[in-house]
UniProtKB/TrEMBL annotation:
Transmembrane segments: none annotated. This is Amidase domain-containing protein. Residues 243-273 are annotated as: Disordered. It comes from Solanum commersonii (Commerson's wild potato). GO terms for molecular function: glutaminyl-tRNA synthase (glutamine-hydrolyzing) activity. The lineage of its organism: Eukaryota, Viridiplantae, Streptophyta, Embryophyta, Tracheophyta. InterPro entries: Amidase, AS_sf.
Length: 273
């Protein structure tokens, strides 16, 4: 579902980085029915010589990923992506609300606000977005906590600063940091999110529950360099097996029997056919 055209990005969800490369190659390109899409070439990630790459790692980078890539011949260095915009989150929030209203304008005008699931959030946000003028959208001061940033002018400044300060071929960092996600969205920075292990779920029903959730990290590349991030992810997964594992998803302990085990509702013969 389209939300905000200048922020929306299309990407595959696959079992491996190699599969992601194949699917991305199939879905990339200009969509004649989508005026916001662009025809961008995708380099071949399978032909990238990773030993010629310099890859940075942030403080929150998964050190195992850093170590594996280093063992594969990648030049890894400490790195920090510097920019002066106080809050990318504020710019994203402002931009997304206006972009969403542009997409859902007819829906809201026809009084279908009650169809939204989050009634305590989206209808109100879209009504607020309707009173934003064009001047405000370009230069309105967006406050996020104690930080202040300039909407679209701030975004342009952020894009330029990231371009100037992206002094490595890619960098490794946490995939769940919201500020980093916002920077990636505003700049158009591709990221491959890879699994690196499992951890216990929060608020588990019991101490011996088998249920776990995936730990992930991100490999970020400059805009239009998706193939570099994919090449590094493929290299990492070539010598690790995190992406081949499946976490238990039930709430049952290791010594518990499964009550009322599910049975197939489709006859076996029909399954064979």
């Amino acid at each position: 579902m389209s939300i905000s055209e200048s922020l929306d990005k299309l990407g595959p969800l696959c079992r491996s980085a190699a599969d992601c490369a194949v699917v991305l190659d199939a879905i990339r390109g200009k969509d004649p029915d989508d005026l916001s899409s662009r025809d961008i070439m995708l380099g071949d990630p399978f032909s990238v010589d990773i030993t010629k790459l310099t890859v940075g790692y942030l403080e929150d980078a998964d050190k195992e990923v850093v170590g594996v890539l280093k063992s594969k011949g990648v030049n890894v260095v400490p790195f920090n992506l510097d920019y002066t915009v106080d809050s990318a989150q504020g710019i994203v929030s402002f931009t997304m609300d206006v972009g969403m209203l542009a997409n859902f304008d007819e829906w809201q005008r026809s009084n279908q606000d009650d169809e939204f699931e989050a009634q305590d959030q989206w209808p109100l946000e879209l009504r607020c977005a309707r009173v934003i003028s064009a001047v405000d959208y370009i230069q309105y001061s967006v406050k996020e906590g104690n930080c202040t940033s300039q909407a679209q002018r701030g975004r342009s400044k952020l894009i330029q600063e990231v371009k100037e300060n992206f002094t490595v071929d890619a960098f490794i960092g946490g995939s769940g940091d919201w500020e980093k996600i916002c920077v990636g969205n505003l700049v158009g920075m591709p990221v491959v999110v890879i699994p690196t292990g499992f951890k216990k779920i929060s608020n588990a029903p019991s101490d011996d529950t088998r249920r776990k959730t995936t730990i992930t990290t991100g490999i970020y590349a400059p805009p239009d360099h998706d193939h570099v991030a994919l090449a590094l992810a493929i290299a990492y997964q070539s010598v690790t097996n995190h992406h081949k594992q499946r976490p238990p998803i039930d709430d049952i302990g290791p010594n518990d029997s499964i009550p009322n085990p599910p049975t197939s509702a489709v006859p076996a013969r029909q399954l064979r056919d």
